[in-house]
Amino acid sequence: MVVQKENPVEVKRVDLLVVAGEPSGDQHAAICVRELKKRHPQWSICATGGPALEAAGAHLFINMMPFSAVGLMEVVSHYSRWKQLLRWLVEWVRVYQPKMVCLVDFPGFNLRFAKALYREHLSQKGGGSVKILGYIAPQIWAWKARRRFSMARWLDALAVIFPFEPAGFADTNLPVYFVGYPLLQQPNPFRYDPQGALLLLPGSRKSAVVRIFPLLQEVFQQLRKQHPSLQAVVPFPNEAVGAYLKAQAGDDITICSVSNVSVGFCGAVMSSGTASLQVAFAGIPGVVTYRANPITFFCGKRLVKVPYLSMANLLLQREAFPEILQNTPFQAIAIARQMNLFLSDPEPAHARFLEDAHRLTELLSVPPQQSLLDVIDTMMDECFLGLESKRG
C-alpha cells in the first residue's frame, strides 16, 4: 500500500521531482536539494524519500524509508507494493507534469520508473515533456552491464560519483558526468582512537540489519573474552533501524544516531554500505561482513562479477579490509579472530589502514567535470527554453 505523507493535490506546480528509495540516497539527495533551494528559492521541489530530503526543503509526499529492501528474496516479497507505487508515481507525473525528475540510486525501482515514463510518453525521450536525470549509477561494472543501453534509451543524462564510471558508458549516446564523490565533501562522523570503542555498522536498511546485527553482537561478545573493557557503539541512520537496535542491544552496546557519534573507534565490523567507505577514509582497522537470505547470497555469488564486496577493496584492487561472509564456517569466530589481530597490535594496523585511507582519498579526489547542481541547472534551463519556444 502506498503511504502518503500528505495529499499531493496541495501541490500547484512542480519544477523538480526527486525519487530516493534508501537512506544513503536520501542523504545524498538532501545535500543537493538544500543547495538548490538556496540557488533557486522559487523552485517547487517534491520528493519521495526520507527525513533528510524533507529537512532540506523538499515537499515529501511519500516516505520511502520504511519500505527499503535489499536482496532478491526481500524484493520478491514486496513486489506488489513496489508495483503499486510505480503505477501511482507514473500517474502523479502525468497529473503534475514536473519539468524534471531526478532518480537517485535505487536502480531496481528507479530504472523501472524511467522505463514506465518512457512507455507512457511522459519523458522527453518517450515523446513527452519531462526530462530524466539519473544520479548515482548502478554498478554496471559488477553485473548487468547491458543495462547501460536501456539507460541510454530512457535517461536524458546521468551523474556519477566515481571517476572511472563515465568510461563504462562510452559506447552509448548517454551524456554521463562525473560530479564528485559526495562523502568527501561532508564531515566524517568517524575517527580513529586506539583506546576507543568498537564500531559496529549493520547497515541502513532494516531488512538487512535484522540479519546482520545478531552476528555483530556475537562478534562483540567473542572479542570481550580477550578485551574485557571493550565497549561497542552502533550508530543508526534512521529511526526505523534505531528502534530495532535499541530493542535488541544489551546494556554493553551503545546505540546512537550517526549525527550524535562523539567517540573515536579502535576498530570496526561492518556491512558493505556507504558507511564502510567513511570508516576507510578515517583509517580505522576493520572487517567487512554480510548476511543475506541464503537464496539471495547463492544467486549473488554467481551473478556478481567482482572480486570483492567492499567498495574500498574494489577501488584499491586488493582486500585491504578482510571480507568474512556467510559462507565462512563459524563466521562470528572468524571475524573476532581477525579483529583481535588488529586490536592486539594497534599501531601497525592503524598505519596500514591510514595509508589506504590516503590512497582512497586520492583516487576519489579527481576534480569533477561539473557539480550535480550545475548538471541540474543546465537541464532545467533546457526545460524552460523548451517551454518558451512552445509559447512562442
Q: How is the main sheet built? A: 7 strands, parallel
C-alpha Rg (nearest Å): 22 Å
What series of H and E elements makes up the topology?
EHEHEHHEHEHEEEHEHEEHEHHEHHH
Counting DSSP H or I runs of 4 or more residues, the number of helices is: 14
CATH topology of the largest domain: Rossmann fold
Tell me the β content. Answer: 15-25%
Q: What is the CATH class name of the largest domain?
A: Alpha Beta
Helical content (DSSP H or I, runs of 4+): 40-55%
The average pLDDT value, as a whole number, equals 89
Characterize the overall form: globular
What is the CATH superfamily label of the largest domain?
Answer: Glycogen Phosphorylase B
Strand order of the largest sheet: 3-2-1-4-5-6-7
Question: Explain this structure to me?
Answer:
The chain folds into two domains: 193 residues, Rossmann fold; 173 residues, Rossmann fold. Strand 5, helix 6 and strand 6 form a beta-alpha-beta unit. The strands form two sheets. It has a seven-stranded parallel β-sheet with strand order 3-2-1-4-5-6-7, sandwiched between helices. It has a six-stranded parallel β-sheet with strand order 10-9-8-11-12-13, sandwiched between helices. It has 392 residues and is α/β, with parallel strands linked by helices. The chain is built from 14 helices and 13 strands.
What are the main properties of this structure?
globular, 392 residues, six-stranded parallel sheet, Rossmann fold, seven-stranded parallel sheet, alpha/beta
Q: Secondary-structure map with pairings?
A:
Layout: E1 16-20, H1 23-39, E2 45-49, H2 51-55, E3 59-63, H3 72-77, H4 79-96, E4 100-104, H5 107-119, E5 131-135, H6 147-154, E6 157-160, E7 176-178, E8 192-201, H7 206-226, E9 232-236, H8 239-248, E10 253-257, E11 265-270, H9 274-281, E12 286-289, H10 294-303, H11 311-316, E13 323-324, H12 331-344, H13 346-364, H14 372-391
Helix pairs in contact: 4-5, 7-8, 7-12, 12-13
